[in-house]
Amino acid sequence: MMTRLVVITYVLSQILIGSAISQNDPDVLDYLTRYGYMEEEEDDGSFASLRSIDPLTKAIKEFQKMAGISVTGEITDETRKWMKMPRCGLSDNVDKSYAGRKKRYVLDDSKWEHTDLTYKLTRSARASLNRSMVEKELQRAFDAISKHTPLTFTPSSNNIVDINILFGDQEHGDCFPFGPGVLAHAFMPPTGDVHFDDEHNFTYHDPDGIELFQVALHEFGHSVGLHHSEVNGSVMAPFFIGYIPSFDLHEDDIAGIQKIYGPRMTGIKPDICQDSTIDAITATKDGKTYVFKGDYYYRLNSNGDDIDPGYPREIYADWEGSTGPVDSVLTLKDGYTYIFKGFKYRRYENMRFVDGPRLIEERFPGIPNDIDAAFVWGGNEKLYFIKGNEYWRCCGDRCDYSVPSPISLWGMRNRIDAVFQWTNGRTYFFQNESYYRYNDDTETVDSGYPKPTGFYWLGC
Ligand SMILES: *[C@@H]1O[C@H](CO)[C@@H](O)[C@H](O)[C@H]1NC(C)=O
Ligand SMILES: *[C@@H]1O[C@H](CO)[C@@H](O)[C@H](O)[C@H]1NC(C)=O
Ligand SMILES: *[C@@H]1O[C@H](CO)[C@@H](O)[C@H](O)[C@H]1NC(C)=O
Ligand SMILES: *[C@@H]1O[C@H](CO)[C@@H](O)[C@H](O)[C@H]1NC(C)=O
């Protein structure tokens, strides 16, 4: 890509020799060069005057089409106005070799080969929005794409992630310094990285501001393989035209990403009776019991022996901000339900989103990432976390038993998938397709266990 950029610049300095407009309008020429309106492949050292169509007029027309203004081929005031519009730093014209292409989305020839993408915010904004706001808005933008494709986007603290996101200034380490008016730029798959220009103040719901969500959603469109679109109102139009409440993917954008990845398969629901291993289970404040497995969740009936009609449903559709598979779900006595995933959690009251994502280490210091289970034990009302063969204990906000104990102390072996206290006050441990009932008085597993989860809880 670096190579390509150099070539364009070089070519233009030659093409424009002898063009009257070029001398008078360096900014316009610079703009048209920068955003790919001049054709690189035609250059072989020949002069512009030998061409059949004046490349500058053609470029201006192309730009006017992209901006949705009158196509005159001349630099009108309106043309200048649109060239001053804050925008994405990526080129607009990718392949002009075929004329008369329909006005619609443009696909890159690259795509992600896996759908469970990870991302990391390596450097957040310096001054505008705080980190938790930025993270929330980024996830909201990713969710807008997940909703229409099989792609999922999960924050990760690993060194290697699919999409690295950072806020930087000018030359920020990728050899593509932000130009004037550029808000952000992104790389096509399989790079996918997104860089925001930190010299702009990104905002949240400020009518006069630069809405981070809108810019992020546009850039993420590039991250998954879309180029700029000429369709008015599409997210992939290159310009930021101001804050738009309820901004979302346009049908043109959706058609584009679904052309690459297909739609989200909502019709095919997994059969939990085929494999009744679960990821998490919790009883929320209102007494409802929910089981989480993969991308889906299930509500149990009040007897806790069957799934309510209408389930499973997709986690992302109802638990705002969360996507499956989750690590663990916990409801505390204060009524808040915590969904844990990776190194973060989100908080809900029943199914209403309250806050997050937040770092586990901030709220529960000493607790590891990627936990398997979390529960409050009726025996002492203390909070426990399980990961692998070990558990950690917390009391209120203090999880000071930073040295974990073996889960064999609970009479358990191997990895536990989920634990919770049901409305009858008993504690249940779920492992593979079975569950154990724990006796809080004798502090042992009740006799007769394990029993099959599918038969006793899920109505299989
Ligand atoms: C693009 O859409 C906006 C509103 O969505 C409208 O105000 C504007 O006139 C449209 N522009 C064109 C060229 O159709
Ligand atoms: C971040 O900013 C939001 C909105 O301004 C505010 O509600 C929130 O408390 C801030 N969070 C932190 C951790 O400062
Ligand atoms: C961004 O905000 C800071 C502090 O509020 C201000 O000093 C700066 O001028 C703003 N920058 C822009 C580009 O608006
Ligand atoms: C649970 O499944 C894992 C692999 O899926 C297996 O290694 C383990 O032995 C199983 N545990 C029990 C108790 O069956």
Written description of the protein model:
This protein is of the alpha+beta class. The chain folds into 3 domains: 83 residues, no CATH class; 146 residues, Collagenase (Catalytic Domain); 178 residues, Hemopexin (4 Propeller). The protein has a 6-stranded mixed beta sheet with strand order 1-5-6-4-2-3, with helices on one face. Strands 21, 22, 23, 24 and 25 form a 5-stranded antiparallel beta sheet that branches. Strands 9-10-11-12 form a 4-stranded antiparallel beta sheet. Strand 23 and strand 24 form a beta hairpin. One 2-acetamido-2-deoxy-beta-D-glucopyranose binds next to loops.
Provide the gyration radius in Å.
27 Å
- Average pLDDT: 86
The count of strands amounts to 25
Strand content: 15-25%
Distance from N terminus to C terminus (CA atoms, Å) equals: 55 Å
Largest beta-sheet characterization: 6 strands, mixed
> Going by CATH, what is the homologous superfamily of the largest domain?
Hemopexin-like domain
Overall geometry? elongated
